[in-house]
Structure prediction request, 661 residues.
Amino acid sequence: MSMRVVTEAGQLALHYDLVVVGAGPAGLSAATEAAAAGASVLVADENLAPGGQIYRGITRNTPERQDFFGKDYWKGRAITDAFAASSVDYAAATTVWSLDAATSPLSSSPRRGEGGPKGRMRGPSGQVLPCDAPSPPCRDLLPAGEKGQAAPSHSICDSPASGEKTGVATLGLTLAGAARMVSARAVILATGAMERPMAVPGWTLPGVMSAGAAQIALKSVSGIPAGRIVLAGCGPLLYLLADQLLRAGADIAALLDTADSKQRMAALRHLPDFLLSPYVAKGLSLLLGVRRRARVISGVTELAIAGSNHAEGVRFRAGGRQDAIAADCVLLHQGIIPGINLASAAGCTIEWNDTQRAFQPWTDSHGRTSLAGVLSAGDGAGIGGAEHAAVCGRIAALAALADIGLLSSSQSAGRLAGLEKKRQTYRRGRTFLDTLYRPARQFLAPPDPDTMVCRCEEVRAGTLRQVIALGVPGPNQLKTFVRCGMGPCQGRMCASTVTEIMAEERGVSPAEIGTYRLRAPVKPLRLAELGALPQTPAAVFAVTGRTPEQHSLEEEGKNR
Amino acid sequence: MLLRIREPAEPVTFSFNGRSVTAARGDTLAVALLAAGVDTVRESVVGGEPRAPYCLMGVCFECLVTVDGIQNRQSCLVEVRQGMVVTSQSGARLVCGGQNR
Prediction:
């Protein structure tokens, strides 16, 4: 058996046991695991080939030709090989623009569970907990560190009256210019991470990209930025990219490290845990290797990109001294955060992770979100890295299969225990990294009023601060007042900055501010695609009052 | 702007604003444009500022272009195809396939 590549909407089945959104390590591992257990599986992914961002291009690159990647990159090959050999439907270049979670058929009168999410930030129908009680003891803004511990293994729909815990979820997707609705008994969101936006003056200029973008160019076409490169920001990925670019022969003028020196003390108490993690040796050799081969400037506290129609260089302050470096390309990075748009629009409870300083879907220890039948795995559920994501994908698949009755709990229990142990290994040291590389305040909430925060609608930090001072209740009202977050990216590039600015202005935690309320479609959907969706005769009758047969008779009459 | 440090296999040719561009099969359009030396792919809707692909992973929507007459395609998610006609967008979109301002 092997994977079936779906290239047209018409080739999709109407129904799957499991739909996995995303083909990175979490999604691929989840799909492979589920298919092995006999489930019918669809993997829908935006990209042209499997691998996600971390293993992008893995099916096209070879260690001989692309010798600038470290050995960790090639670990992706085993994941994509196993995926290609499994009996799944794989839809590449496919956008999933909506997810309607099933409301449980068991609940005759769904109501908000008393102990359930309070003060939620969104209100599609999915927000009502699908069963009466007990609800997961989660709130939108759970304090960090409680993830997965407080949850009663999502017993909310575990009724002895039913063999299944879930109903049917519906996903809207577009493939090769045509949209389809597909239903699934379970959905695993493996939508991965995005880079935390780093709004600095001049960051909208051509010639400025995220560090992740440069890595994508390297992985997808073996492309390196032309001319002199400045990398700026903080976090392990910045150094990883610097290392890869150096190996590929790029001209790095400087790496400006904006890591907050105050965080070193805070991170210290997590150091013992990090020393036991699998990342120590790699991290240290990267750090030292880059410092040996490139000019690294630490303690950067201010940064602006100079240029009128193109980046021409950077101005910065380090150790109290103002300086400037000419550059043709500036690559920004300050860590990664979960991509929550689909989970959020579906109505999953979103919580604030204070250690990672980001919002993420609430999940139990196996990846179940607050919505029955919807699970989240990998970096989209909280940052843990590629190998962690792959394990989480398998755990979520086993949990999903158990929930829909395709695996008995005795079948999954032993494997789950093994996987959870493995996951713990990959979690080791994460808190140290998260704490050490928490971006400095001035890079989370830009102090310069002219800094563009919303790139789409061109709303600047100063405008936001002025409007916040008027007493705007939250990011959603801010959006309606000044259009911040209303452009095509749907707030992806400004949400975190908006929350940070508002939290700073109010002197409260981002957890209290919340983030944008999101709604489907979470990705662009053409009206033509929406209009051409296949409709059932009942739906046609409900809207027009006539059956499809009557419609076609009338059409014939007109043509006569 | 990107330099390809490995020769592209299986060349594909498309046009960008009337200019012929060669890329490789399996490339995304955004990366192909950057590798062809295209520096600015559009002018922003609100301020008419020059913009270029920023994230290359479907998040930022800076790489929007018109592909074969369809506006606002995320070029980082579109695969290059032989004969594809790509044009940049300047300023706000017009309805009914109207001309750019």
Notes: Residues 312 and 327 of chain A are 5 Å apart (CA to CA). The first helix of chain A runs from residue 25 to 36. Chain A has four domains: 4-194+338-407, 197-334+432-436, 445-513, 528-559.
